[in-house]
Amino acid sequence: MVLDHAAAKGATACEVDVSEGFGQSVSVRRQEVETIEYNRDKGLGVSVYLGQRRGHASSSDFSPAAVRASVEAALSIARFTAEDDCAGLPDAKLLATRAMDLDLFHPWDISVESAIDLARSCEQAAFAVSPLVKNSEGASVSAQQSQFVSANSLGFMGGFATTRHYISCSVIVGEGDDMQRDDWYVSQRDPGKFVDAATVGDYAARRALSRLGARKLKTRKCPVIFEAPLATGLIGSFVHAISGGALYRKTSFLLDSLGQQLFPDFVRISERPHVRGGLASSPFDDDGVATHDREVVTDGVLQGYFLSTYSARKLGLQTTGNAGGAHNLRVQPGRHDLKGLLREMGSGLLVTELLGQGVNYVTGDYSRGAAGYWVEKGEIAYPVEEITIAGNLKEMLRGIVDIGNDIEVRGSKQVGSILIERMTIAGN
Q: Do 157 and 2 meet the contact criterion of CB atoms below 8 Å apart?
């Protein structure tokens, strides 16, 4: 209906996305139900082109009149928009034509009462670890599912259903002036693959307890390990810097870096969009372009950017099928788990929490508040807090000494803990 109405009204091209999602979330705090939430969302987004002028409109009303009105609103916008020689649909030959079942849909038929019981067991396990677990910020259980369909006037049409479920717990430990908090969560498409909820609460409590007695450090330079959940952010900064939007706007510290050695020669980063059940798997990107396995970094050398149709045209390149982001980006792990990395580091800082947003993507300068543990002779000596870690992302990437195999799969980027040769630690 959208494509036909757009063509009838004079659009030279059109693309449309229709989506719907729903789910439920519950949270408990100190065993009392704190929230029960139901969510249901739907939306339609339509982009029309008059030559190389683009207009976009959206609606949450799927009635025929509202759909037609959205198309006409997009056309009205396009008429007053300046021409953009990079605007338009992808090349037809790049569009996905093959249907794939990537095993992304596993509804969790869990009642509110069962979800509450699960959240309570998660939190109860945290309190059972020690009398020093004094309070809780809550345990939560969430079950979500969604579906979408995308189509354009070149004949592309595709869509699929997905699920994403969570269990989380956050606790407060200690007494007097020595209070700490920490949390943990797990995410799965298939609820049958969850660890026991009590395991999540138990681990959250043990992480918080291990931070009691935290000290400050004197300012120094030393090796730093980013724990696996934080290492994904480090790789995320790299991805941002080699993404089309940052590159064509010239707001990246990695301009013109294709073919350059950005990492040590043992680093390999791959994109695998078709992993069955993967948290970022998809047969096509947000433009409808077919996704493919590819090597992003080989032997430390950058092999490709992350480009949408538009950003690729702005750069005079071809889309990499990354409109909407990366698809199951995996950094090849090394031989060691986290304990092995600690032994390899010897003495230095293990970072388990970052604060603030001190990343300058234009220069690569990096400065974040941090907390974690001081390590001596390959063993954790004591927790530390109220410090700042600083460096430059380009130097940090080159300074990677090793990558752990302790991967926590939580999203589109999968990497173990990362050991960096040297950073500045600002403390007392």
A: no
